[in-house]
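Duplicate of #3305? Posting structure anyway:
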C-alpha cells in the first residue's frame, strides 16, 4: 500500500484520485451494483421458471427456489468476505474469483478452479447463444402463424439464427474496454424487468380470460410421457432453477467496481429477498 502511494506521489499525481491499491478511485454506487446483479440474475433463466414449477409441482418447486436462494446467499456472504484477504478489511484485494482461490487455497486448487470456471463460462455462453437463436426462431414462427394460421407448419431452422447471433457476439466482443460500458447493465436491467412483466401480464390475462390450466401440488405425471421422460424433465427443471441463481461468479468483479465506503454484503440480503419474491411470482404465473 505504501509503495503504491509513493509511486503515485513520485509521478506527481494526487493520491486522493487513487485507491489503496494504486488503481484509479472507484466510483461504483449501490445503483450500479444493483444494475449489474439484476442483469445477471433476472436474465433468460427466469423465462423457464414457469415450466420448472409445472414439472416439479408447487411444493417441491417452491422449496427448490428457496433452497437455491439460501445457497446463493451463503455463497455471496463468503465471497464478499474473501474479496480482501487474509484480512477482510485491510487485506489485499482479489479482483476476480480465481485470484481469491489462488490467494487462499494455493496453486493446485487455482488450476482446478480455472478449468471449472472457464468451462462454466463456455457453457453459459453456448447456452445463451442457443437460447437467443431459439427465441429468434420463435418470433419468426409466431409471425408465420399470425399470417398464415396455425394449420401451416411454419418450420424454422434455428441454425441460421445461431450463426447470425454468434457472428454478432464476435463483432461486439472486439469493442475496446467493453467492460466500462456501464450503461449496458442499466439497459439490460430495464429489459429484464420488461420481459418479466410481459410474462406475468400474459399469464394473468390468460387466467382472467377463463383458461384454468391443471396444476399440481406434488410432482405431476403426464400420461402421454414415459417415466424416463418425466424424470428427465424433473432434472432439467432443477438445473434451470439452479442456473437462474448463477450470478455469484461475477460478484468479485461487481465488488471491485464499488467505492471504499460501500459494502456489498449490506445489500445481499435485500437482493436475495427481492429475487425470491420475483422468482416465486414468475414461476407461479
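Output from current build:
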Amino acid at each position: 500500500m505504501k509503495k503504491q502511494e509513493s509511486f503515485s506521489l513520485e509521478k506527481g499525481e494526487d493520491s486522493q484520485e487513487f485507491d489503496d491499491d494504486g488503481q484509479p478511485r472507484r466510483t461504483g454506487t449501490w445503483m450500479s451494483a444493483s444494475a449489474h446483479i439484476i442483469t445477471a440474475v433476472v436474465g433468460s433463466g427466469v423465462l423457464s421458471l414457469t415450466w420448472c414449477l409445472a414439472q416439479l409441482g408447487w411444493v417441491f418447486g417452491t422449496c427448490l427456489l428457496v433452497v437455491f436462494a439460501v445457497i446463493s446467499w451463503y455463497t455471496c456472504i463468503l465471497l464478499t468476505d474473501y474479496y480482501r484477504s487474509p484480512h477482510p478489511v485491510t487485506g489485499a484485494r482479489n479482483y476476480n474469483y480465481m485470484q481469491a482461490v489462488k490467494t487462499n487455497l494455493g496453486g493446485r486448487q487455482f488450476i482446478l478452479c480455472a478449468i471449472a470456471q472457464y468451462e462454466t463460462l463456455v457453457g453459459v455462453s453456448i447456452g445463451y447463444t442457443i437460447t437467443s437463436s431459439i427465441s429468434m426462431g420463435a418470433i419468426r414462427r409466431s409471425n408465420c402463424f399470425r399470417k398464415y394460421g396455425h394449420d401451416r407448419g411454419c418450420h424454422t431452422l434455428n441454425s441460421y439464427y445461431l450463426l447470425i447471433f454468434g457472428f454478432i457476439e464476435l463483432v461486439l466482443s472486439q469493442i475496446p474496454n467493453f467492460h466500462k460500458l456501464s450503461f449496458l447493465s442499466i439497459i439490460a436491467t430495464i429489459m429484464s424487468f420488461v420481459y418479466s412483466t410481459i410474462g406475468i401480464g400474459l399469464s394473468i390475462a390468460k387466467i382472467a380470460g377463463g383458461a384454468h390450466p391443471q396444476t399440481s401440488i406434488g410432482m405431476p405425471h403426464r400420461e402421454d410421457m414415459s417415466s424416463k421422460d418425466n424424470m428427465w424433465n424433473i432434472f432439467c427443471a432443477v438445473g434451470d432453477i439452479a442456473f437462474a441463481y448463477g450470478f455469484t461468479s461475477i460478484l468479485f468483479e461487481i465488488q471491485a467496481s464499488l467505492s471504499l465506503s460501500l459494502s456489498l454484503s449490506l445489500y445481499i440480503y435485500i437482493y436475495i429477498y427481492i429475487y425470491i419474491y420475483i422468482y416465486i411470482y414468475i414461476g407461479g404465473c
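Confirmed duplicate; merging threads. Residues 1-13 have pLDDT under 50 and may be disordered. The first strand starts at residue 84 and ends at 85.
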